[in-house]
Amino acid sequence: MNKKVNGLRILVALGANLPSDQGGVARVPADSLRAAIADLGTRGLQAVSQSRFFATPCFPAGAGPDYVNAAAVFDVPPGQTPQEILALLHEVEAAHGRTRETRWAGRVLDLDLLAVGDQVLPNLATYGRWRGLALTDQLRLAPDQLVLPHPRMAERAFVLVPLADIAPDWRHPVSGKTVREMHDALPTADLAAVRPLPNGR
Known about the structure:
By secondary structure, this protein is α+β, with helices and mostly antiparallel strands. Helices cover about 30% and strands about 20% of the residues. Strands 1, 2, 3, 4, 5 and 6 form a six-stranded antiparallel sheet that branches. Belongs to the HPPK family. This is 2-amino-4-hydroxy-6-hydroxymethyldihydropteridine pyrophosphokinase.
């Protein structure tokens, strides 16, 4: 995934583990992911590629039903900032009934901005601080500003397995590792737990 001429390409992780009935339309999680990708297109983010859909154990364990996860690459119109892109993702989440009262709660839709081109935000020191956060602190703390690339992406099979479908050669701007290299460094059991849905999408 390289920077697009006159614009950017972004990586987005998608997930859902609760059904949605927003707007009177009943949707299972996989349908919510499909609808979200279409909704993003109407807001100017055009999907370049989309992974298969995967069934993934809920994280943290025991917090709810299993997830359906996917990843997508989008083209972004020129001039749109990473903060504006994140706000747009949150708008789509809210349109599908997502609320943010409880961290790590089950979700009708989760859209995570993983990377915007090769940008490191807000700066390398802040990224490093959040990247090195202990698990106990991860469960109770959240940054008050956008941190890119997503500090946890290299640890999560439910992110890297779908991402390897569509952007295996994308290179992390801090570690220098490709998606494939980060994927292959994860424990075998973690990778095996992320299973393609029978129909793929």
